[in-house]
Design a protein that fits this description.
The structure is a homodimer. By secondary structure, chain A is of the alpha/beta class. Helices cover about 40% and strands about 25% of the residues of chain A. An eight-stranded mixed β-sheet of chain A has the order 7-4-1-8-13-14-15-16, sandwiched between helices. In chain A, strands 2-3 form a two-stranded antiparallel sheet. A two-stranded antiparallel sheet of chain A has the order 5-6. The relative contact order of chain A is 0.15. At the A-B interface, strand 3, helix 4, strand 5, strand 6 and helix 5 of A face strand 3, helix 4, strand 5, strand 6 and helix 5 of B.
Chain lengths: ~325, ~325
């Protein structure tokens, strides 16, 4: 079983090359870890991964994620004294900047007669708090971006290897990672045409004269297995399990923990994920739930999640 | 042929219901058009459409688009006296706010001792210009959002119908619209499981014990046909054709114009779309190209595109 798993993920990395910025990112993470060697360190993954359907990518399969869980959690880890490596989908939400969207800013900014641009008084206190916190924690935050599933897995492996030699490291895997992909070697070079006319028909995106077009996908090897056993056996590993069917969540979360033998699975349901989660450990399940009053007053469930994790490590 | 096309798009709207905010959006667009009845009016579509693979959507097929073309063009149409209906993908770039990303703002904002939050002097002039312009044009801008392909097509049909009775209306279709979809009735309710265990296997996302999983997609009916013939026959219609293979672009752009008999196809190549485009009209093709110096100095090709359109209408 171990050998089969190993063969699968070795094959994946053999068939799908690393991103262009892999070496540069490895250096950046190494230096960041050295600088913060006396702190608690967490690698947070955040946002969805894309699965390109063409080499010159116009179309791709994506996973729903704005990156809210990861970006919010990063803020609470920083407030609790961690140095944070934030491995996020390019263009998904980031810590602190998530509160300062362009839509908000184009409404909140005002220009004085002397040309000074400032935040209007009704939002100044709120924005001030964010800016001051960002400046306080900026040096404890290392941001690395990915877009595709393959880039994500390369970066995860690279970062996990580095964190493994750090005495107090946590992996907090909040990214929404695709279960399916199309190997690079099977991708058509150009944008797929909507009628198969002058094109050789690519195997992965198949038109027949009879039936509808179909996309053939491969199942992504489960990377939690080598992560826990080989890449970061010394780290405390927390994964997420998102479902839309509440009847499946408990068994899926417990199943993942038994299979991969890591430390915590945080179970959540798509529709209620900001209100309730289940922290599934080997011998305990803790439900964390916000009241409607807490939600209204701006309490974020990631505050409670991080506090709970602090009791476990 | 006409009848076959009509049957196809009627079937699409029959099988895929409109979004919850359709009536509200119709009202908003109607009022906006009434208010600006003496102005030139443009409907700009912008951003990619999603094709959900589940009803409670975790996974979807997406089209690459940040919405830069649409958001930038909207700014130049506003500067040239148009009232702009901006039909955009939720969370894609918007006019003016595209310059004020959270990443930039968390770096550019500073807090004074008295608690005032202002933009640092090195970026004040640039941000000031954007804020002043946004305030100037805010009332001439009507923003409507969509996420899925189906929502987009419902909104497009609704908006086009309203604009058709306006004497000077332009449709500028810059959204990256999927050619493929899965009809709502064929979607599985919940997140697809990566191994077919306890689940009934949904037809559209098919696992077999032998081969790889496959997704069956339907081809989206070409909506330019009813748009030009029925929904907005009085409007000036501009569509975009994006390719990755330069050898295909000219024939595809000309082919679209001949087929749908609208006014302009703007052809562009994914890799060079900010530097060069081809304006394809019935009897002329005009290439618009920026020099490297112009690109470096911040000239945007949408400025030239809008100026060229002004010579045609």
């Amino acid at each position: 079983m171990e050998n089969k798993d190993e063969a699968e993920w070795s094959k994946f990395f053999h068939e799908n090359k690393g991103p262009a910025n892999l070496e540069e990112s490895r250096d950046k993470i190494s230096k960041f870890c050295d600088k913060h060697k006396d702190k608690k360190l967490v690698l947070i993954t955040s946002g969805g991964t894309t699965v390109p359907l063409e080499l010159n990518t116009v179309r791709y399969v994506d996973n729903f994620s704005l990156g809210t869980r990861g970006a919010t959690s990063a803020e609470y880890f920083l407030r609790n004294g961690f140095a944070v490596i934030f491995l996020h989908r390019e263009s998904s939400l980031k810590p602190f900047s998530r509160h300062l969207s362009g839509d908000a800013m184009r409404k909140w900014l005002q220009v004085s007669e002397s040309g000074e641009v400032s935040v209007c008084s009704s939002h100044a206190a709120e924005v001030s708090k964010i800016v001051v916190e960002y400046q306080k924690y900026e040096d404890s935050l290392c941001e690395i971006s990915f877009t595709t599933l393959s880039d994500y897995l390369w970066m995860l492996k690279t970062a996990a290897n580095i964190l493994n030699s750090h005495p107090n490291s946590l992996l907090y895997l909040a990214a929404a990672v695709s279960d399916f992909y199309v190997p690079t070697g099977q991708l058509p070079k150009h944008k797929i045409q909507s009628r198969n006319s002058i094109f050789a028909v690519p195997k992965t995106f198949c038109f027949t004269s009879e039936g509808p077009p179909t996309v053939e996908l491969q199942i992504v090897p489960k990377m939690l297995s080598p992560l826990v056993s080989y890449w970061a056996p010394n780290s405390f590993v927390i994964s997420f399990k998102l479902e839309t069917d509440p009847n499946l969540l408990a068994s899926k979360a417990k199943g993942a923990l038994e299979k991969y033998k890591h430390n915590v699975v945080i179970g959540n349901i798509l529709q209620t994920r900001k209100k309730e989660v289940w922290m599934v450990e080997k011998d305990a399940v803790t439900k964390i739930e916000l009241t409607n009053e807490e939600l209204k007053s701006g309490v974020e469930i990631e505050d409670r999640i991080v506090k709970h994790i602090l009791t476990l490590i």
